[in-house]
Write a structure and sequence with these properties.
Number of strands: 9
Order of helices and strands: HEHEHEHEHEHEHEHEEHHH
CATH superfamily of the largest domain: Bordetella uptake gene, domain 1
CATH topology of the largest domain: D-Maltodextrin-Binding Protein, domain 2
Structural class: alpha/beta
Strand content: 15-25%
Number of domains: 2
Largest sheet: 9 strands, mixed
Distance between the termini: 51 Å
Radius of gyration: 22 Å
Bound molecules: D-malate
Length: 329
Amino acid sequence: MATLSRRALVAPAVLGLAAAPLAARAQASYPTRTVTIVVPFAAGGPTDTVARLIAEAMSRDLGQTVVVENVGGAGGTLGAARVAQARPDGYTLLLHHIGMATIPTLYRRLPYDPINGFETIGLITAVPMTLVARKDFPANTLQEAIAVIRRERDKLNYANAGIGAASHLCGLLLMSKVDAPMTTVPFRGTGPAMQELLSGRVDLMCDQTTNTTEQIRAGEIKVFAVTTRERVPSLPNVPTAAEAGLPDLEVTIWHGLYAPRGTPRPVIERLSRALQAALKDPKVVQRFADLGTTPVPEEQATPEFHRQFWMAEIARWRPLIQAAGQYAD
Ligand code: MLT
């Protein structure tokens, strides 16, 4: 008994001593295998588009394959939970958007800690949104669309990616500004929602330019406004919501990269450097510009800036959500 317990006490101490340099070596050579970026929405949508561009560019800098895995559902909380609960070794990351700032208040019961479950790596980009409709929607301007929304109200279907999604947030803003509820139809992401809009099975959606630009340019959907203060250079003919007579419908969707809490600092720093390199990659810069967005400056693609920004965003959204009392649970 005594011998056993002495062994039990001694063994971890010896292992601990041996493990420390091993862990340091593992961190110094990181990454030695494929890195997975979890996207908490369906494939083919705006978060997925950003993630695939970033993953490809980061893999060039890291010298290892970086793959994207879509874990959609429950407004982005399923994918976030998957990463919060993953091993903190730098091989499972999360690329998420503004939902990281609204979910901690919107959801009061989650199977993971939506704030302390993560390390920040860096911000990526902020994407404008567009208010779009099926091609045969009976309106051509924002004012005409508002009149139809007020007249038809809950007979109209508004597609979103669940509570906490950017499309949900923009829809809430829109409905409160025009004072008319619509029936919301949640999808695992606005990739699949876009397919329903294209086929005319849903009426309206507010979605990021990273998922709407090509369909707008091809004339496959109608667009009424962009949600930014200035017009978006890649869609120069689309008015801002304020120009079209709806001031305050202003929202841009920031994105960031996260790792599970406890990921070693040297690994976070390596990932942050790879992210900064990816944001300067000419292919990323060009494709972002085509889709209406730009990479953040290098100093914002850092763990410190990202955390500060994220905390400020949580504080900005909390009173608004609490005042609206519109919780997911
Ligand atoms: C959203 O509405 O949050 C996004 O469009 C989600 C997605 O990437 O599908």
